[in-house]
Structure formats: C-alpha cells, structure tokens
Amino acid sequence: MSKVQILSYAGCSTCKRALKWLGERGIDVAVRPIVDEPPTAAELARWVPASGLSVRRWLNTSGQSYRALGKARVDAASDDDVVRWLTEDGKLVKRPVLVKGNRVLVGFREDDYAALFG
User: To which CATH superfamily is domain 4-117 assigned?
Assistant: First the structure.
C-alpha cells in the first residue's frame, strides 16, 4: 500500500489534531507543507471529485487569504478561478487534505478518518 499523503500547515491546530490521530494509530504519513507546495491544478482535477465536495468547499473560509479575496469576489468567481486561487495560495485551502489512494478527505473529522482507516 502506498503511503498516505497529508497536506498540512504547521501552524494549523486542526492539522496538528489530524497528525496526532494518525500517529496514535501508527499510520505512516508523508507530510507535505501546503503553504510551500499547494495542490496543483492536475491534483485538484483528481482530488476534488474524489473528495465528493465542490471546489468551493475546499476554501478555507476562516482564513486571512479568503478574507483578503472577499466573499463577493469569491461568489462571483468561476470554478476555474477558485482552482487557480487554490493552486496559488496554500493558506486558501481548507486543511488538512488527506490523500489515500483514490480517497481524499478535506478537513479533519475523526469519524471520517476512522471510517477510512477502520
């Protein structure tokens, strides 16, 4: 089985909780710093459908990057615009992003992680 990849931000408390959860279960993860290496357009083309979420649900709406764009601008943007923004600014991405094979989880909900690894 390939290693689980998690896109994470070191200053994110939710990312820390997810990494702690994974570590407590001995799950081998490759951590990718989301700010330094945001998802690419090709990755998003695969991951967004695999997550079962719309691309707009990938936005970190509580972060400074989102506030800088402004809700009105985001609401008026096309999905292609949103994808481009996500590839340009890792802090705009809701995190953590966990990739396990063809399964993708956005954010950390313990029940979802338990179902994926259970």
Answer: Glutaredoxin (3.40.30.10)
